[in-house]
Write a structure and sequence with these properties.
Chain lengths: 119, 449
């Protein structure tokens, strides 16, 4: 079991099974969360990780900039430690970006096409 | 011609149909921050009604997160001579959830009801497909373009449903070398189908990363199919002229081989036709130039996400979602289109920030034309994640539907000042409207055999 703290819900905490996706375990406990595809392919359920670690190897939706900004895909992510997150669109401040005004650098693309960061 | 099936005997008969009084549009909450289901809105478009220009009914889907998008009928003029068929059910696929909702619009056209849901999980397990998009009926059968496999990877394929909305399996016999799917249209007298390319669901659903175009994760080809053999026979590589080739439309005249595709990112219209030797040819006929923006380092592309052909095949309508204009071209000579009308509504260039008293968020995006070619209904939302990138204020303001008066004789278009539906004022909060259809068939629904 792991403890999930939701920072933007007055720090409410939930005990969850660490082997199941966070979306599922939180919804089972009555947390109202957005979602779409439920397989990690769209970012409708994205949340922001404030502290702790998750395994989200199955997600294919986030680019590396979004990952570096702390976004996680709740429908496939599982907690590896106790975690604190922000949920819902209030946490989506950096998630959406005008691609013409703010281009990605090569290392910020999605994992399958990103090139290593030049030092 | 007297007959008993749905639709009309020909496009010229369709033009003479009575004026539309109701319009259906989908409205989404997916991706907006409002935890409510997407819904089908009925809009009263009868100018003699007290409720004119208002949403008069809302049919909520059973769950949240579908992202309703395009829709199509169980039957159209392709089964005009089949007395056992009627245009009763509207199919509403959820792009993200993969669920397909079958809605009964005939029992009470003003207040449609949910007839059946084909579950997304069932579609995945039986066909390995996801990401439903365009719905066309095909005689008494239904085919739906699916943009990905069950894991959201391209190219996907085509879902085949029977008239009782049971999954028959995959429609196509082969996808050939096709990399991506999106829209399709068929012209049976030439035994041809044309399909276009967006991207894999995993690529476009999270939003638009411009850099992925250069990494070939977005389409730039259109495909010609042997319709009876259900397999692709020829691919047109459009290159830089055809980045993100989205909507494809043939002439309504079933004898014509001419068709058109709007390449969204290139903001070009591609025209194809069969030459005298029987070979398919293509050319670029409209090129919307990128526009400078006072605060952008790069010029703004139009983003031509939709095109529409009037029922008399005389006019082509297109949108520039980022620029903010709707255009009308006379395509009497399809090789040489003439710009005959233009209306500004919203967009990033600041030319029409307020329309009929409503502050616009978004630009012209999807549109539906009356069968007589006189009224064009236009909505402003593209896709939740893409809206959030380019028009973040749409979250608070919602989508809008406006009406443009069109002159089908001499050309020309002007904004109608008496009509506007502000989806920012919906009871559950701002929603976003997208595709629109009329109960009796419209300018993007029917195909003639």
């Amino acid at each position: 079991m792991r403890t999930i703290t939701i920072a933007n819900r007055d720090g409410e905490t939930f005990e969850v099974n660490s082997k199941r996706p966070i979306l599922e375990t939180l919804r089972d406990q009555g947390v109202d969360l957005p979602f779409g595809c439920k397989y990690g392919g769209c970012i409708t359920c994205a949340a922001k990780l404030i502290s702790g670690k998750v395994d989200q190897n199955r997600q294919v939706a986030l680019n590396n900039r979004q990952i570096n900004d702390g976004y996680i895909i709740l429908c496939v992510a599982r907690p590896l430690t106790d975690i604190t997150i922000e949920i819902g669109v209030e946490s989506h401040g950096n998630l959406y970006r005008n691609p013409f005004l703010d281009p990605l650098k090569p290392h910020e693309l999605k994992a399958d096409i990103a090139t290593p960061k030049e030092v | 011609m007297e007959c008993c099936g749905p639709g009309y005997s020909s496009p010229s008969e369709a033009i003479k149909a009575p004026r539309e009084k109701l319009l259906y549009t989908i409205a989404i909450y997916t991706g907006t921050g409002i935890q409510k289901p997407d819904y089908l809105a009925t809009v009263d478009i009868d100018p003699h009604s007290e409720k004119y220009s208002q949403v008069i009914h809302r049919l909520e889907m059973p769950g949240i997160g579908d992202e309703l998008h395009h829709m199509g009928w169980n039957a159209c003029s392709s089964c005009f001579d089949d007395g056992s068929m009627s245009r009763k059910y509207l199919l509403l696929p959820g792009v993200r959830s993969n669920n397909i909702h079958i809605v009964d619009t005939a029992t009470n056209p003003r207040a449609p009801s949910l007839h059946k849901v084909i579950s997304g999980a069932d579609i995945k397990s039986k066909t390995n497909l996801s990401g439903p998009h365009t719905v066309h009926c095909l005689g008494s059968e239904i085919i739906i373009s699916m943009l990905g496999d069950a894991k959201g990877e391209a190219p996907g394929g085509y879902l085949h449903l029977n008239k009782d909305f049971e999954i028959e399996g995959r429609w196509e016999n082969s996808m050939g070398d096709i990399k991506f799917g999106y829209d399709f249209w068929y012209q049976p007298r030439h035994n041809i189908m044309v399909s276009s390319e967006w991207a894999a669901p995993n690529t476009f659903m999270p939003g638009f990363d411009l850099e992925e175009v250069g990494h070939l994760k977005y389409g730039r080809e259109i495909h010609f199919w042997d319709f009876e053999k259900k397999e692709p026979i020829e691919t047109m590589y459009l290159g830089e002229d055809g980045l993100l080739p989205l909507e494809v439309k043939f002439h309504h005249d079933p004898d014509s081989s001419h068709g058109f595709c709007g390449a969204a990112l290139s903001s070009n219209v591609i025209h194809w036709w069969k030459d005298n030797a029987g070979k398919w040819q293509w050319e670029k006929i409209i090129d919307v130039a990128n526009e400078p923006h006072p605060e952008w380092p790069l010029p703004v592309p139009g983003v031509m996400s939709a095109i529409l052909i009037s029922m008399d095949d005389k006019y082509l309508y297109l949108n520039n979602w980022l620029h903010g204009d709707m255009r009308q071209y006379d395509i009497s000579d399809p090789h040489n289109p003439i710009l005959t009308g233009q209306v500004w509504m919203g967009g990033l260039l600041g030319k029409a920030p307020i329309v009929n008293g409503v502050k616009m968020a978004g630009g012209p995006q999807m549109f539906q034309l009356s069968l007589d070619g006189k009224r064009l209904y236009v909505t402003t939302s593209l896709f939740s994640t893409w809206d959030n990138q380019f028009y973040p204020e749409i979250r608070e303001q919602g989508g809008v539907m406006v009406m443009i008066d069109c002159d089908p004789i001499n050309g020309g278009m002007s904004l109608n000042e008496d009509f506007i539906v502000d989806f920012g004022k919906e009871p559950n909060g701002p929603s976003r409207c997208h595709e629109a259809r009329y109960p009796g068939g419209d300018c993007t629904s029917d195909i003639w055999l």
